[in-house]
Specification:
Elements: H1 10-28, H2 31-35, H3 47-52, E1 59-63, E2 66-67, E3 71-72, H4 79-88, E4 93-97, H5 107-116, E5 122-125, H6 131-140, E6 144-148, H7 154-166, E7 170-175, H8 178-183, E8 191-195, H9 208-213, E9 222-226, H10 232-240, E10 245-248, H11 250-253, H12 258-270
Parallel strand pairs: 1-4, 1-10, 4-5, 5-6, 6-7, 7-8, 8-9, 9-10
Antiparallel strand pairs: 2-3
Pfam family, one: IGPS
Pathway: Amino-acid biosynthesis; L-tryptophan biosynthesis; L-tryptophan from chorismate: step 4/5
EC number: 4.1.1.48
Length: 271
């Protein structure tokens, strides 16, 4: 009898597509060309430092047009005005999606975000599987890259995070359960983010994962909670148990004016 294969998850499909994208990009733009970008030699802004600032908001505001689970979120929001507004509203950092097929992002979004927000830490939000993408991130103006434990082996996490540090990029490692924490070498990880949403099915709409995993994250790492955060009270409660940052995208992006929504959210946290 043939062993029944498990159905492909959304994450499987994204990674399969990403592998093809990366190989095409390598054929199109050489590594040498990437290193000649105007942003490649700039000194990165530290997201970890911004999140540790007791006077800061701790909010990493995300710019994304759509997602696999929600479909179109805000196709019309401009990258310039949204990211400038985020910075002015006090975002500790800005996460910018560069995956096109599943999230509607473009490398130009990151480049424009960099140009318009020179002092704000920028995260390249994508599915990193190859060192070439780290060069892209540096070339496009990112300060931080995302590594997702759910789709990487331990050696990949070690190799990619070490290479990122060599390029002067900070590393945000995203986990969803204790097994992912246990398998992940943290030597070159600056920030550990707990994604409250399960990337394999994009289900779950609570912050239980963050509450359950806080005790297992190394004490010396900056800790952030990601996704499923919509109320100021949730941020306040998560802060009490040790989280310093909160990555929020859909909550702001689904509004007519994402930057104004962030400003309102920040005022409620502070009050």
């Amino acid at each position: 009898m043939h062993k029944k294969e498990r159905p492909l998850t959304i994450l499987d499909k994204i990674i399969a597509n990403k592998s093809i994208e990366v190989e095409r990009a390598k054929q199109s733009i050489s590594e040498a060309s990437l290193t000649k970008s105007k942003y490649f030699d700039r000194v990165s802004n530290s997201l970890a430092r911004a999140l540790k600032n007791p006077e800061g908001t701790g909010i990493i505001a995300e710019y994304k047009r759509k997602s696999p689970s929600k479909g179109d979120i805000n196709i019309g929001a401009g990258i310039s005005e949204t990211t400038i507004g985020y910075s002015e509203a006090g975002a500790a950092g800005i996460s910018i999606l560069t995956d096109t097929v599943f999230f509607g992002g473009f490398k130009e979004d990151l480049e424009i975000g960099r140009d318009k927000n020179p002092k704000t830490p920028l995260l390249r939000k994508d599915f990193i599987i190859d060192p070439y993408q780290l060069l892209e991130a540096k070339a496009w103006g990112a300060d931080v890259i995302l590594l997702i434990a759910a789709n990487l082996e331990s050696k990949q996490i070690m190799d990619l995070s070490k290479k990122a540090h060599e390029l002067g990029l900070e590393v945000l490692l995203e986990v969803h359960d204790k097994a992912e924490i246990d398998k992940s070498p943290m030597d070159f990880v600056d920030i550990v983010g707990v994604n409250n949403r399960n990337l394999k099915n994009f289900a779950e709409n609570n912050v239980n994962a963050s509450i359950e995993l806080i005790e297992f994250i190394p004490k010396d790492k900056v800790k952030i909670s990601e996704s499923c955060i919509s109320k100021p009270e949730t941020v306040i409660e998560l802060r009490k148990i040790g989280y310093q940052g909160f990555l929020m995208g859909e909550n702001f992006m689904k509004t007519i004016n994402p930057a104004a929504a962030l400003a309102d959210f920040v005022s409620k946290i502070k009050s």
